[in-house]
Amino acid sequence: MTANIIQANAMLLDAKLQLSLFGNDISNFTNYVRAPVRCLLKAKEKPSCQNFISVFHACMDAPNDEFKSYVTYLYTDYRNNGPTKSLTMLQLLDKLDIEYKPIHTLGRWERKQTSEILALTATISALQSELSSIKSNYAMLAKANSSTTPQNNTGNPQLKLEKPPTRQPGTPEITEFKGLTWKWCDKCFGGSWNRTHVTAEHQPGIGKRNRRRNQPSGATNPQANLAQTPASNASNTPPTDSMPSETATNLQSNIASSTTLDFM
């Protein structure tokens, strides 16, 4: 007798009361539970509270929302010591069968997916995966381009060249570095490599004029033009403090003319 009780309790363990083990079929599940319950009743034992809870939990995994709502109602009532608490296990199983059979008979128990729906689902999943891959590749490409092709002041991509190390005193002003010819000028930025001239060939303001030419149309600053005009004439004109008064007058006239043109 004791062995039968132990076997019955083993059949009612949570691991054994999984609705998926019975193909989500409530009738098969309740028939399985009845066998050990009858064995306990024959031995003058009653199913425990945990046995009831295990049955409720198993039925809550049903694939039908209508049935799950019904089981949830019974379970809540049972935990709140409602009328369901007075049911025997066999009575509870009968209630579950009564609720299940009409739902199953009407074909509402499980929503069957047609082959067309399954194929469409698979296609959507494949497209989502492909789109995710494209986005990832695009982000990597954009990041690589932004790090290697900075924009110049005209908005066009410009490759950033690596300059040679700082020139040491006594070394040549012209050097080859990574396949390019570089020239050193002591007057540019306090000493810098460039591609156009050495110190003796330095022309004040030439770099600013070149940068102004590269600016987009409409971006010219009149004040910058005003500041550049005397600098551009200074390369071919003696210093102001040693110029004759007539030359100084002409220079001032040129400055005024340039300012007027820039603001027109």
Question: What does this protein structure show overall?
Answer:
This protein is mainly alpha-helical and 264 residues long. It folds into 2 domains: 2-105, no CATH class; 174-263, no CATH class. It has 9 helices and 3 strands; from the N terminus they run ααααααβββααα. The protein has helices at 2-11, 26-42, 49-59, 65-79, 89-105, 115-148, 206-213, 222-234, 245-263; strands at residues 174-177, 180-185, 192-194. The protein has a 3-stranded antiparallel sheet, with no helix packed on it. β1 (174-177) and β2 (180-185) form a beta hairpin. The N and C termini lie far apart (114 Å).
Separation of termini?
Answer: 114 Å
Task: Describe the main β-sheet briefly.
Answer: 3 strands, antiparallel
Count of individual domains: 2
Main structural class = mainly alpha
Taking all Cα atoms into account, the compactness measure Rg is 46 Å
What sequence of helices (H) and strands (E) makes up the elements?
HHHHHHEEEHHH
List the helices and strands and how they pair.
Elements (H helix, E strand, L loop, with lengths): L1 H10 L14 H17 L6 H11 L5 H15 L9 H17 L9 H34 L25 E4 L2 E6 L6 E3 L11 H8 L8 H13 L10 H19 L1
Antiparallel strand pairs: 1-2, 2-3
